[in-house]
Design goal:
The protein has 271 residues and is an alpha/beta fold. It is built from eight helices and seven strands. The longest helix has 37 residues. The radius of gyration is 18 Å and the shape is globular.
């Protein structure tokens, strides 16, 4: 049974990598070529790359899920009267798989422009990295370098011009056993303590943006902390919940973000 699960996972991974490199990569090159031919403005080009990245996240998520018999339950706010407002998006971070999950959820909510705060290594990932650079993502070293906060600030200012969301994982790294043991506290059991600098910078640069909190609930899935261990997703289900936070304005980031992470931890503990 374990061997069959691994086979399905590696089959799904191979199919998705092929689609990423040939399908998404080919479309990216076509968009870039046509925009240069048309002499599209940088803003017009970014608009197309934003939509390209979200659409492909949803497609790859769908293909991957079908092959490994994996299901996602989305519990998302519905806004039938208008498009969702650009927001600062905060998410708990369990695995490298989270980015595709979150992009898929945001696309389902009606968002078509998202920038991310991501580790600098993301910029070197084929196709994905180039797309992140093109839309002005903040690629940070995560070494408490003051330059990282400036990169986040510039990312936020560019997002405001484009009407784009900014996505950040406040924990700063994935939730692995070794990391959890070194950074956990008695207050948390299922998340890492959030770091405040990046979120504070976003809130200062985007004072009119609401905060959208996404909770990725892995339920009974264990061990899937990196790409090589995602075979434990085979035949499983995951839940993604989203909620706009109503009590953020005028409050210190340290206060409301700590409260929100405690709420996430309690939610994950119950499930």
């Amino acid at each position: 049974m374990a061997l069959f699960k691994r086979f399905r996972f590696y089959l799904a991974l191979a199919v998705c990598l092929t689609l990423l490199l040939l399908g998404a990569g080919g479309q990216f090159r076509l968009i870039s070529f046509m925009d240069k031919l048309r002499r599209a403005s940088p803003a017009e080009h970014r608009t197309r790359i934003y939509a390209w990245s979200l659409r492909w996240a949803e497609r790859l998520m769908s293909v991957f899920s079908d092959i490994i018999n994996f299901s996602m339950a989305y519990r998302l706010p519905v806004r039938k009267d208008q498009a969702p407002p650009p927001a600062i998006v905060v998410v708990n971070h369990r695995s490298t798989f989270d980015l595709m999950i979150v992009y898929s959820a945001l696309w389902r909510m009606g968002y078509c422009k998202v920038r991310s705060v991501a580790k600098v290594e993301t910029g070197r990932v084929p196709v994905i990295g180039r797309g992140a650079i093109e839309v002005g993502a903040a690629l940070v070293s995560r070494s408490r370098d003051p330059a990282d906060l400036e990169r986040i600030r510039l990312c936020a200012l560019g997002a405001a011009e484009d009407g784009a969301c900014v996505l950040i994982f406040p924990e700063g790294t994935t939730y692995g056993d070794a990391v959890f043991q070194t950074r956990s506290s008695i207050a948390y059991r299922n998340v890492l303590p959030p770091r405040f600098g990046g979120v504070r910078t976003l809130c200062q640069a985007l004072p009119d943006y609401p905060v959208l909190s996404l909770t990725v609930d892995w339920l009974d899935i264990i061990g899937a902390y990196d790409t090589t261990r995602l075979y434990s997703l085979v035949g499983k289900e995951m839940i993604v919940e989203a909620e706009y936070l109503a009590d953020v304005a005028g409050r210190p980031v340290e206060q409301w973000l700590t409260e929100e992470w405690l709420r996430k931890d309690q939610r994950l503990t119950r499930t």
